[in-house]
Every structure is written in C-alpha cells, then in structure tokens.
Model the fold of this input.
Amino acid sequence: MKFRFEDQPHQAAAISATVDLFEGVLTPPHHVAGTPAGAGGHMDYVLNREVLTENLTRISMREKVDVQGALELLEITDLLDRERAFPNFSVEMETGTGKTYVYIATALRLAETHGLRKFIILVHSVAIRAGVVKTFKDTLEHFRHKFPNLPYSWSVLGDSRALDDFVAPSSEVQFIVVGVQLLDKPEKNTLYGLPEQAQIWGENASGVEQLADARPVVLIDEPQNFGKDLRKRVIATLNPLVALRYSATHREPYNLIHRLGPKQAADQGLVKRVSVKGVVAGLGGQPYLRFEKITVKKKVPFAELVIDYKTARGTERAEVAVTAGTDLFEESGRLDQYRGWVVDNVFRAEKRVAFENGVSVFEGQELGVDRQAIWRDQIRQTIRAHLLKQSDLDRADQRIKVLSLFFVERVADYDGEYATLPAMFDELYREEWLRAGLPVAHMLDPATVRVAYFPSTKTGIRKDTAGRKADAEAEERAYQEIITQKELLLDRANPRAFLFSHSALREGWDNPNVFQIGFLRHTKSETERRQQIGRGLRLPVDQTGRRVSDPAHCRLTLVVDESFAEFKKGLNEEYRKDGGRGNEGDDLEDADAVVEIRRRAERFESPEFGELWKRIRYKAIYRVSIDEAAIVGSLPQSEHLAELRFIQKRANQVQAADLVYDEQGRVITDEKGVTREAGEKIDASGQRLPNLVRQVEDHLLYGKFPLQLTRTTVVALLRAVPAPLRAKALDDPDRWCRIVAQAVRVLVIEDMINHIHYEPAEETSWYDANVVFLELERKNAALVVEGQPAPKQGVWKSSADGSNLLDHVEYDSQVELAFARQLDADRQKIKLFVKLPRRFRVKTPVGEYSPDWALVYEEAGEDRLYLVRETKATRNLDDLEWEEALRIRFAKRHFDAAPHGGVNFEHTTDQDGLLVAQ
Done:
C-alpha cells in the first residue's frame, strides 16, 4: 500500500501564511549566475525586520489569530557564548492534520520563491525523528511532481556524511533532521569538538559552527519541548535566519501566524471525532484513593489525593489537598467508606501519606481498585468497539482495516513471567467474537491478532522506558519496527489488529486506522492524554491508501479507567497547561451516550424516495471557462485593488523614546513609549524589477484555491491595472503582486459562476443509496428531550408516522432543528424528506459542498416537486463567508444539470420555509 497525498485547503492556508510573511523581507546576496542564492547558506541574506513586522500584522489579521503589531525576537546567549537575536513564528495545527507535510512543503515554497536552501528540522525525540524521515520517504513522489524543478534531499545528523553534505554548497534544497540530544551538552557532544580531518587541513570550525555558518532556517517540531533555557540556547547555537515553530499547542506562541485548533479541525472533518467510554473503579462501598503528588505551601507539605465525593448528581471523583489532621470522611461529603481515614502525617522525603487507621500510601499508589478487573472491562469494551466498527465498515462496503491500540502500565504486564494481559486478551477476544454473533469458523487465533511494540535491548529483552537519553537506543528499535510496518498493519491480509505499547507510541507515531485506544495505565503527566489521543486522530485510509472522511466512520473511541467527566476535566486542563485556549477540548463525546439512527425500510423502498434518489444521486464534473474580456474590463474597478494605493516606497524608520529606569538602573521604557517616523527613502534605482507575471502566477497557483491561468491572460490582467496603481509595483513588488493576485482570484472565481458547466460523470461512479443512507448509524450525540432546552447540536427523534427517511434527524444548528420540525409536521405537502449526510457531496471550485435537505413536495394533488434545500440563519448570501456563499451558488448550477428530471435547489431559513414558487 502507498499513501496518497492530495493538496488540501487547510494545509495550503498554513503554507501560504508563512510564505506570504516573507514577501519583500529577504534580500538575497550577490551570487554566481545559474546558482541559487542560498546554495552556500544564508549568511549574507538581509532580513528587513520593518517589513517583516508589517507583514506579521497583516497575516495575523488575515488568519484571524491575535493581531500582532510588534515582532518578538528570541534574544539569548547560545552555547558558544555568542549573543543571538532572531525572529520566531508559530503555526498551530491540530495533531493528525499533517503539520510535518506542511513544514516540508513550506520550506520548498520558500526555496522556490526566495532561493533559501538550508533547512534544519529540530526534534526532541527519536520517535519524532523517525516519523519525519518516514514522511520524507512517503511524500517523495508527491513533492517531485509538485515541485518538478526543485531538487531536494534529506539526511539525519549523525549519519555518515550527513553534516558534510549539508554544509557543502549545493543547488539542491537540503534538509537535515537534528535530534536536540546531539547538541544540548557541549562538554560531551562530539559536534562541539574539532574533527580530526579538519585539523589535518588546518580548519578550525567544529560541526556545530559549520551548521551555524550556514545560517539555516530552523523548523522546530513540537516546540513546547524546547521551553527550557538550555534548549532555547540550542536553537540559538544553530544561528537561525529565522525559526518556524510547528505544534498543536504552543506554550510560548512566538508571533503566531496561523491556527487550526482541535475544534476547527473536528468541525471541518479533518480529524476523527473523539468519544470516551469510562470504566470507573473504586465504587461499591470500598474507599477509593489515588495519591498523585506532594506540594509544599508556606513550608507545609500537602498531599494531592483523588477521592470519591458526594454530589447532587451522585458520587463523583475529584482532587483534594490534604495535610496532617484532614478527615477524608468530611472531604468526601460524609461518604461512609471514608470513616476513620484521617491523615496522621505527610512525609515529604518518603513521598508517603500515613493515616490514623495505620494505612500508608505512597506517591502513585491507588487503593480501592481491583486493577485486573478494570483491565478486563477496558479490554472487553475495546474489543467490542473494534468488532462493531469493523462490522459497520464492512456493511458499508468500506475497505478499511480497523486497528486498536492499548497503552500498558508496565512491559512486565504483557511480557514476562507474571504477565497477565496476553491470556486475558485472548479469553475476552473469544468471548466478544461469539457475543457479536460472528461465524466461529472465521475466528482467528487471538494470539495472531495482537502484537506488542516495546523498547528492547540489543539482545531482545523488552524494557520500560521514559524517553530519557539513555533509553534512546532501545526506543529506536521499537520505533523503527512500528514505522516500517505502518503500511503493513493497514493491509487486511495481515491479521495483526490489536497493538500493545508502553512508551514507544507515546508521540511521533500515529496510524490513520487506529479507531480505539484502551488506556491500561492511569494517565499521570500533564500531556499524556493529549499525546495518546493523538495516536488515533488521523483520518483513516482504505486499502488503496486513499483517505476516507465520512463522519459516520471517522470516530475515535477512548476506553479509560476514569469517569467521562474526570477524563474530560483532565484533558481540558492539559490543553490549558499546554497553551490551549479555554475549552478547546470540550468536543469530547460520551461513548455511552449512543443514539442509533435507523433507516426506515418502508420509506427507503417507497416510490417517492426512488424518484427523488434517481434525480439527485448523480455525481458531476465541472468545466469552467472565463470571460477574459469581462474580467480584464472589471479589474480596474475592483475594490480589492484599493490596497495598492497605500503601498509606499520602502524607507528607514527613525525611532525615539525617553529612557525610563527602575531602581536597579535597568531601562524599562515600554514599547508603547517609542515614537516612529519615516526616515530616508530607500533608493531601488538600478535594481532589477522582479518578474511580476511569474510572481502573480505563483500566488494564484499556490493559494488556498489554486488557479492556473494562461500567461497571456495574466499579462492582459496586469496591463489592465490602472497606471497609477501599476506604478506602485516599483515601490514594493512582492506586496503588489500579492494584492493583484488576490483581486484576480476573486474576480475569476466569481466569474466562474456564470461560466461553469456541470456534466454528469459516468453512472458507475454515482452515489449508492445504501452507502449514503446507512441501514444503521451510531452517533455519540445529545438527544433532544421534549420539554427541555435543545442542545445546540444533537439528534432529534422524528415522529413515528412522519415522512422522514430516517427515524432521527442529526442537526448542526437551531435553524436546522426548527426546519426539521416544520417538515415533520407538514403531513399534507411533504411526502418524504431526509437530512443529507455529509458523505453526499457536490464538487465546486472552492471545495466540496454538502447540502442540508432533500425532499418530495406535493400541493393539492398537483405535480410533485423534488427539492434540495440549504438552511442558514440568513437569506442574504453576502452575510455569509465568501467561500460558503460561493459553494451555494455553484451548487445551484450543479442541480440545474440533473440528468433524470428537474431538481429545485434554494437556500432558505426556518423563517422563510421551503420557498416553493407558486
């Protein structure tokens, strides 16, 4: 199997945010004709910080992140005792949305547009390093096709000749993947010493100095792991021209320029939705207690415990801070099981809490739990969810192999003399197979469907590790095995489907077809939940390697050893501590709150549905032409060109401020107290004007919605720009090209509405009703309860005798819920209706579009109408996002081309109703 890579709008947006940031910023050095400017490194590049600051403000406004009007530099002394100051920029992308792909593509675009050639990818773990190398291998063919005239290569620092090849002048774009452990100890790392070969020839540059002399662009993977002073100094030691930071959560978001958060990613269908099934331990009359850690407040040691406590909703679990004299009976709301549990003392050195009843508990210890029983429940629930998911996919004719992942507490629980997990799994697998009603003859030996990936010694002895440098070699063996077998695990001919791991799969690895994760270890760290969830967020792929985005199938189920509320609270706390904003993690769904949406057989087999489906089931391809004369004629009046008027010739900036001192004599003048005014204009006479046609073409081709226009058309459009505005290209060519390209993009796409032609594709590719409308679909969603406020998003149960094709309606807004109720109540005119699943899609030049409703309408026994409706809060398309409004406009043209009878498409609101023409 080979993974397929396609251009995706969310990735293009992240790439453009960074590439656009450097418009007019980088001045390349003089170089030999025919050789890229950065072939020998970027030491002589000039970086205009004033323009960079202007671009930062513009990009942050455009990308709708916190607007930044000042450039934040990392200023620090490096490990060679040199003062460094360089800009850092942060891109936030949710795990599973392709950030490694994005930063490689971004580097190649920067190479293409600015001649940059030297890129260091800085990673903090062996796992991430291995994952980056795997991405380079998987994307090689894709990027060779995307950048046919841009050769590139990659290596790993520490491999033979990797350093020498990287620092040598080359016309190739060069990447080197660097583990921070090779650089963070100058007294031990060999890269700080002088190589013997260099000494022979009288050279005096160490390996680190050679890297610094290249003044590379440093791409930092997971920068939250580089927050300590030592690791910041490592970054500075590389002497970056600029550092680009990529993570799902930034603890220090230097100059954030793009954000794709968890909620955005889930709402856009870019990752799996996440549901949680909690197995709660410690109830049933036994006192539950978990000792988390010791903290000291005003020199008094406190122990942080987790206990059960009484609420109006029943018994829940929460943290309490206890010290000598604390009575857990009172802390729990007077639960009987805690009578007599009074803290006698907290011993900080021993990490122990002693109770007056004679019991002592050590840090990390848990009481009131039958751990084996909890594991059995978790494994059982994981196997059950796995078999159900595989059955659902097979029933929907989706050729996807399901994988489940278990995180274990200790390697010895799976592999060793007293290991209990293998036999436990095998027993429960057989039980759940029979419970699911699957053919006994088809059941494989459970031992053949499970596989373990644990760090091991050279002699094959598996061991517990914690990501320390001493563990690197053992962990690397596990990483290499799982990563090299990534595609093999996806092959349905391979029986391995249940993966057991300790620390090897904590980060840096994921597999798109992990649908269940069983946490057979209680999460302890501030980031462990997020790291482990990330192993299963990526969208699944089928047997051809093609990504599947159907929301009916894209769901990750977590089986945890705590309540849903406790897990959700802990995960949200991790988001906040890890740099998340507020309630980014609140989209978790309770796996026990399952609604089954069933297809009504009598409706599905009715003539009404048959005729409706015959009319709308087609897929269509579109062909577009543009009215060049009309676009050229309208471009001079485009409001999007107005920004050209504000382009000014580049000038120096004169800054002035009064110095304000604190009591220690340090200057504390606030940045707000600095006045700025234009200084001497920069004379660009004699410099060659960039190829404006080529730059505009590049902006059009690499934007969020790529456009490829003929060069003749581009030239005609540039000539149409009014002469006073055209002259502004002399002052700031890069910015001028960006503005003009955006104006052209808007005009061309809007012109397509009048010149797009949809043609039905081959009928063999049309939608299958059994695939679009599943016989049974399970949703983890809130169910509307009559008489109670309806949730913003959820599932509403239709009337038993209503005309809905399905027995429930899944809605995304209150407008949709109100509209569904109207349709359900109108028994005279509405003969059949259905909320169209998102897997029913229409292709448009600005992305795929899923309409809301399809229905059959009849009034007074007259001709039936077959309607498709989109419901919004407004009828005015100008009030919607530009892309959203255009998709609706293009969809109307799609349905105008219905090959088997007319289909009427409109957008409406719950207030305006069906909008049926009389």
Summary: The first helix runs from residue 9 to 21. The chain has five domains: 30-260, 282-367, 373-592, 601-619+762-908, 625-651+688-758.
